[in-house]
């Protein structure tokens, strides 16, 4: 999850720079195609494409359709709703993920996990301070995107029970390359050398961040892994301060402390029961 968080910080910067010149569809398509190329050494080491066959191709396709739609919904919401509100609503994803993990995967919702989710959401709300006006179309779109992200994460967790991390990521790059090919070609603008550099960074981080997430899902419950994603909010605020000189105010610091506290409670190992006499 540390790898996931770090690479998402980098991809936010690289993506912002690439989108100055290119459409969203083109950035997403190049990310998928270059990501598949970056995976070739791992594919070769695993024994070639033949070793990446899966007994669950339909679930891979459905998972990536849902994930692709969630990404588009989130980007669309950015044009309809203030960024602060988009971020706040997006971070309801751990709630939907935790609920679906408990219902469909049989994961146990302990008091610590519930508290971690609640504190995480509270910290995010304190940092972004969303408005209290009635729901708009943009807010509803990003809420649906948050639910879709939750569905995608649960499907990844389910896939880790039968498929390797490499299988999951290769299928992601292939399926999403096919999904986005037509709109990307229709809006294609040839990148200059600098933009190509940003695209390579986006492709690397976009691919291997998901690799890290899938590995994290392999080693821990989704209800443990997903609340750690709340750390993206204070970490992004720090990166914005260091790189773009964006101001960090007291609510940001307070929200970060609350988020860190929730994650500490979530990650703390439960006490082992004493052995019977």
Instruction: Kindly estimate the percentage of residues that lie in beta strands according to DSSP.
Output: under 5%
Discrete helix count: 13
User: What is the approximate shape?
Assistant: globular
Distance between the termini: 39 Å
Order of SSEs: HHHHHHHHHHHHH
- Average pLDDT confidence is 80
Radius of gyration: 19 Å
Instruction: Give the biggest beta sheet.
Output: none
Provide the structure class. mainly alpha
In helices, the fraction of residues equals: over 70%
The poorly predicted ranges are 271-277
Give the number of DSSP strands: 0
Count of discrete structural domains: 1
Concise account of the structure shown:
This protein has 13 helices and no strands. Helix 2 packs across helix 10 (193-219), helix 4 packs across helix 9 (165-186) and helix 5 runs parallel beside helix 8.
What would your notes on this structure say?
The protein is an all-alpha fold. The protein is built from 13 helices and no strands. α4 runs antiparallel to α8 and α4 packs across α9.
């Amino acid at each position: 999850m540390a790898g996931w968080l770090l690479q998402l910080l980098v991809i936010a910067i690289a993506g912002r720079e690439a989108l100055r010149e290119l459409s969203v569809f083109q950035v997403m398509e190049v990310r998928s195609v270059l990501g598949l190329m970056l995976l070739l050494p791992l594919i070769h080491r695993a024994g070639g494409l033949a070793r990446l066959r899966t007994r669950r191709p339909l679930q891979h396709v459905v998972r990536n359709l849902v994930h692709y739609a969630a990404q588009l919904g989130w980007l669309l919401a950015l044009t309809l709703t203030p960024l602060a509100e988009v971020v706040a609503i997006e971070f309801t994803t751990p709630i939907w993920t935790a609920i679906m993990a408990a219902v469909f995967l049989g994961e146990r919702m302990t008091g610590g996990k519930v508290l971690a989710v609640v504190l995480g959401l509270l910290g995010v709300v304190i940092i972004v301070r969303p408005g209290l006006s009635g729901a708009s179309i943009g807010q509803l779109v990003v809420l649906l995107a948050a639910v879709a992200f939750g569905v995608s994460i649960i499907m990844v967790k389910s896939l880790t029970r039968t498929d390797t991390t490499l299988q999951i990521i290769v299928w992601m790059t292939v399926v999403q390359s096919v999904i986005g090919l037509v709109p990307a070609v229709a809006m294609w603008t040839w990148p200059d050398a600098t933009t190509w550099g940003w695209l390579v960074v986006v492709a690397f981080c976009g691919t291997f961040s998901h690799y890290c997430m899938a590995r994290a899902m392999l080693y821990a419950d989704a209800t443990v892994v997903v609340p750690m994603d709340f750390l993206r909010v204070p970490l992004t605020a720090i990166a914005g301060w260091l790189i773009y000189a964006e101001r960090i105010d007291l609510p940001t610091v307070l929200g970060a402390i609350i988020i860190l506290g929730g994650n500490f409670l979530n990650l703390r190992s439960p006490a082992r029961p004493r052995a019977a006499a």
